[in-house]
Amino acid sequence: MKILITGGAGFLGSHLGDAFLKRGDEIFVLDEAKDFKIRHNLGNPKFHYIRDSILNEEILDGLIFKSDLVYHMAAVVGVEHYVGDPYNVLNVNINGTQNVLKAAFKYNKKVVFASTSEVYGRNPNIPFSEDDDRVLGSTKIDRWCYSTSKATGEHFCFAYHKIGLPVVVVRYFNVYGPRLDKIDVGRIITIFMGQILRNEPLTVIGNGMQTRCFTYIDDAIKATVAAGLLKEAEGEIFNIGNNKETTIKELAEKMIEVSRVKNSIRHVTKEEVYGESYEDIQRRVPNTDRMKNILKVDADTSLEDGLRITIEWFKAIGNKY
Ligand code: UDP
């Protein structure tokens, strides 16, 4: 099969490309990002890297025309972007998604849309099932722009589905693993990783009792591949996540333990890290029944095992990334 992965040079997209290459498929990556995460595939004749934007409709049209399946993973992700450049988040995530869907509809190509557990916002009812409510804060709080942009993308997917386009929506829950982000930026694991490598205390926001379900990349990729290949997945939303809940304090302690370092924890305020435009989500846990029943995948890699591999990888790569 020929598979287009928008955002295929990113964390999830690069691992997804690896998985499809392993199956023998041909991959087209459309991504503005540099090639750090896909360098290992650049010499492969079945791997094509097109460095451009999903806002370039002409390029997108040509790539979708020649693909059998489209994974739309390109997006602006990361809390520092939600609070730092909300315009870019909204523009790329909403208008770019429209471009992908418009071209996919023109050529009738199935689209798997990478959404996020952020769409549930701060809904207090745990665990989140796919049809549960979205509970968000004020539009004055920039943090919610990402959730809103992805939920808008989902609405566009279902609007196109209604007129005949095969679509699948996958919502990721804090996926981590090698190639996650540069250390110090992006997500909590890379922020803690930078602090560990420099022997600094780990900055835990508040009392650290807020929770997340950390999902190892290989598990997330298995589910994502199944979402693209299975007919039964069409028209559905899937939570893609591990359902073991971990507090941020436990995560910090576990990362210190697995890294075999003597770092301490420093409690900080959310304003110190992200300024006024940030609001935290206290608990985030997926209901994973649908993923298990339809995609036949269980995201059960333990945090210890996943962290061991991830930390080894970051130690080896340092800040060269
Ligand atoms: N967090 C923290 N210290 C930091 C950065 C983040 O304790 O230096 C916390 C943050 O408050 C949140 C959790 O880590 O509760 C996960 O944050 P992340 O940025 O990975 O993304 P989120 O899951 O909120 O989308």
From TrEMBL:
<dbReference type="InterPro" id="IPR044516">
    <property type="entry name" value="UXS-like"/>
</dbReference>
<keyword id="KW-0456">Lyase</keyword>
<dbReference type="GO" id="GO:0048040">
    <property type="term" value="F:UDP-glucuronate decarboxylase activity"/>
</dbReference>
<protein>
    <recommendedName>
        <fullName>NAD-dependent epimerase/dehydratase domain-containing protein</fullName>
    </recommendedName>
</protein>
<dbReference type="GO" id="GO:0042732">
    <property type="term" value="P:D-xylose metabolic process"/>
</dbReference>
<keyword id="KW-0210">Decarboxylase</keyword>
<dbReference type="InterPro" id="IPR036291">
    <property type="entry name" value="NAD(P)-bd_dom_sf"/>
</dbReference>
<feature type="domain" description="NAD-dependent epimerase/dehydratase">
    <location>
        <begin position="3"/>
        <end position="241"/>
    </location>
</feature>
<dbReference type="GO" id="GO:0070403">
    <property type="term" value="F:NAD+ binding"/>
</dbReference>
<dbReference type="InterPro" id="IPR001509">
    <property type="entry name" value="Epimerase_deHydtase"/>
</dbReference>
<dbReference type="GO" id="GO:0005737">
    <property type="term" value="C:cytoplasm"/>
</dbReference>
<keyword id="KW-0520">NAD</keyword>
<dbReference type="Pfam" id="PF01370">
    <property type="entry name" value="Epimerase"/>
</dbReference>
